[in-house]
Amino acid sequence: MSDSNVMLLETAAGKLPLRRSGATRPRTWPGRFVLALAVASLAVTALFIHYLTPLSWNLEAMRALQSVKVPGLHEAMRLISGFGNAPKVIAITAIALLALNRGREAVGLTWCGLGGWFLSIQLKHVFAHPRPTADLVAVFHQWPDGSFPSGHLVFYVCYFGFLLFMAREHLPHRSVLRPLVLIAIALPAVLVGLSRVYLGEHWPSDLPGSYLLGGVWLTLSLKLYRRWRQVNRPQHVFTVSRDS
Q1: Is the peptide bond before 149 cis (omega within 30 degrees of 0)?
Q2: Conformation bin of residue 128: beta by default, left when phi > 0, alpha when psi is -120 to 50
Q3: In degrees rounded to 5, what are phi and psi of residue 129?
Q4: CA 89 to CA 117: how far, in whole Å?
Q5: In this predicted structure, what is the pLDDT of residue 18?
Q6: Which stretches does DSSP call E strand in the chain?
Q7: Which end of the chain is more exposed for a tag (fewer CB within 10 A), N or C?
Q8: Residue closest to 240 by CA, chosen among 54, 7, 1, 2
């Protein structure tokens, strides 16, 4: 037999096992159906919370939160909400990623962050729900658009959620700093809802639907990003030659 019975050429990505011609992918439609049903149920619940929460409860919750007097709390809430200018934040981050030769991540982050922010802006016109006013609670800044959903909150979930996804992929698993970095990235998205209510710019009943919208868009964006990355990934080449 010749030495060239089998020749295997592969890229630096590693060895990829061959799939048998008769192999089929397992059916996933039951799981997708259950997931879609869960998301629909959460959406209905969020809308019920948004529309059926009494104004008196919203006012009591906001006034109770704003009555908390802790040194530096107001400045901290303003700082947490300080990343709300989505186009500017995305542009700066995308430029930084491009400088680090992370073009795919820059595209994915732009799609996820700006897409979620744009979707929330359009839905504000659909729901046209009034914001809190200064005659009811303390309002830091009176915005002209609607209260639901929160553009800040949706953008934070999408933006920091995508950054969290990137950090989990690239940070060394055994690094001592890994959990601290992940917590630091996730914290703004967790606290932004509290800050928007504290600053009098959103009702508490706006939060569940806004978090849900941001989470759904983030999930869809990450699925699209993974598929796009797989399609553009260098393929393994297998060459088999036999001598007669």
Answers
A1: yes
A2: left
A3: -90, 130
A4: 12
A5: 43
A6: 6-9, 237-240
A7: C
A8: 7
How many other CB atoms are there within 10 angstroms of residue 121's CB atom? 16
Instruction: Quote the radius of gyration of the chain (alpha carbons, Å).
Output: 24
Place of tokens 């397992």: 26
DSSP class of residue 67 equals T
Distance of CA 122 to the CA centre of its chain: 18
Nearest to 207 by CA among 153, 139, 143: 153
For the chain, the helix, strand and coil percentages under 3-state DSSP, each to the nearest 5: 65, 5, 35
How many C-beta atoms surround the C-beta of residue 221 within 10 A?
21
d(CA 237, CA 127): 53
Q: What are the tokens at 212? A: 């849900």
37 vs 44: CA distance, rounded Å = 11
Q: Which residues of the chain have pLDDT under 70?
A: 1-29, 233-244
CA distance 154 to 122: 12
- The helix or strand, by DSSP H or E, that contains position 82, with its residue range, turns out to be none
With b for 16 or more beta-carbon neighbours within 10 A and e for fewer, the 61-89 pattern comes to ebeebbeeeeeeebeebeebbebbebeeb
Amino acid at 121: I
DSSP 71: T
Report yes or no on whether pTM surpasses 0.85: no
Q: How far apart are the first and last CA of the chain?
A: 9
